[in-house]
Design goal:
- The chain is an alpha+beta fold.
- The protein folds into three domains: 3-85, no CATH class; 101-267, Methylamine Dehydrogenase, Chain H, CATH 2.130.10.120; 271-356, Beta Complex (RNA Polymerase Alpha Subunit, Chain A, domain 2).
- It is built from four helices and 24 strands.
- The chain has helices spanning 3-23, 65-82, 88-99, 305-308, and strands spanning 43-47, 50-54, 103-104, 108-110, 113-119, 127-132, 138-142, 153-160, 166-173, 176-183, 188-196, 198-205, 211-218, 231-237, 244-256, 263-267, 271-280, 290-293, 296-304, 318-319, 328-333, 335-336, 343-348, 351-356.
- Strand 6 (127-132) and strand 7 (138-142) form a beta hairpin.
- Helix 1 crosses helix 2 (65-82).
């Protein structure tokens, strides 16, 4: 997740919380005349071979007193601008009405049942419903609102078995997630994987319904599970038991092959960076006399570890192309011929001074 996007989410959450606190009767501070300054504390990262500098990473630490003070001052300035505006109460009332329409998901079919989620406008979390046939009546299958009135227990990923006898679902309890199996006919629950500080996604029953596949990863950046390459694919018996790691270091989601015999996953290799100091620079395929300055180059390359570790640089990979140049002095850029997955992230110098001698001179 990019630093800017993470920062946006953090600040929005802080502002919503602070608005609620102020609305609860906390005395207002004197109106500030300008927004508070945000000191720049650059943090550098190498992302897919590119150096990214984030000067405001410190603001993502929600528990930091410095962050909390900045958000409080920023909120005070915002309130000094927005609060005097007329019509705020009417706008708040109308927005509350529009946001109370609720949600409903597309149904999934399992056996003779349709499964889908529905959230009424005043509910914190959606309820998983099942309906027997198109004309059947809705029945609440999993309602996490009954587990926590403050909405801190949430229904996450869920999927029905092909025959509709079971529904597997992930339950979020604060900082932990757990996997559960709901038996549709009896409405009984079974814990498949006990609560852990993990993120579960891409739940899928095996074709015979005897096992459940799921992806698990550390809980950081859980909203961007589909960009992760540090998840693992697990297999666990439907009736519960020990989870077995099937494929490590994968990127969700996954799928069964058409013959339902193999599981297709996306694997991403570890990307590393490697510096090459004083790589000799010379012309390739040029028979004339020439001189070049400087005679070497510094390169930093990034790419899959399996390629970077075995990479060797020579005249076939790093060279000067002088074939079309006439005698005299030239400023020539470096030609690089590398595997397509390898990228040059740094090069010093960028150009070279070449002197081509006239034949017979």
């Amino acid at each position: 997740m990019s630093g800017g996007l993470r920062l946006f989410f953090v600040l929005v959450c802080f502002c919503i919380f602070a608005v609620a606190v102020l609305a609860d009767g906390v005395p207002a501070r004197p109106s500030p005349t300008a927004p508070p300054p945000a000191p720049q504390k650059p943090v550098e990262e190498l992302v897919q071979g590119h150096k990214i500098t984030d000067p405001y990473r410190w603001l993502e630490n929600a528990g930091s007193p410095e962050t909390q003070q900045w958000v409080s001052e920023e909120l005070a300035y915002t309130r000094s601008i927005l609060d005097p505006l007329p019509g705020r109460d009417r706008l708040h009332k109308r927005l509350s009405e529009l946001l109370a329409i609720g949600t409903i998901s597309a149904p999934q079919l399992g056996g003779k049942y349709y499964f889908y989620t529905k959230r009424e406008g005043t509910q914190n979390q959606p309820v998983l419903l099942e309906r027997e046939g198109v004309e059947g009546k809705d029945r609440a299958l999993v309602d996490v609102n009954a587990l926590a009135a403050d909405g801190t227990v949430a229904l996450d990923w869920w999927t029905p078995s092909e025959d509709g006898k079971y529904v597997a679902y992930a339950r979020q309890d604060g900082d932990t997630q757990s996997l559960w199996l709901r038996q549709v006919d009896t409405s009984s629950d079974l814990v498949i994987v006990a609560p852990r500080e993990r993120v579960y996604s891409s739940l899928m029953f095996s074709p015979d319904g005897n096992h459940l596949y799921f992806a698990a990863a550390p809980r950081e950046d859980r909203e961007f599970w589909f960009l992760r390459a540090d998840a693992s694919l697990y297999l666990v018996p439907t009736i519960g038991g020990t989870s077995v790691e099937v494929v490590p270091n994968m990127t969700p989601p996954f799928s069964f092959s058409p013959d339902q015999v193999e599981v297709a996953v996306t694997l991403e290799e570890e990307e590393v960076s490697r510096a090459f100091d004083s790589v000799k620079v010379e012309a390739k395929g040029f028979t004339g006399e020439y001189s070049v300055s400087p005679r070497s180059v510094y390169l930093r390359l990034s790419g899959p570890k399996r390629v970077i570790d075995k990479l060797e640089l020579g005249a076939d990979q790093i060279y000067l192309n002088l074939k079309a140049l006439a005698p005299g002095e030239h400023s020539v850029s470096l030609s690089v011929s590398l595997p397509p997955e390898i990228k040059v992230t740094d090069q010093k110098p960028q150009r070279f001074k070449v002197r081509i001698k006239k034949a017979g001179a």
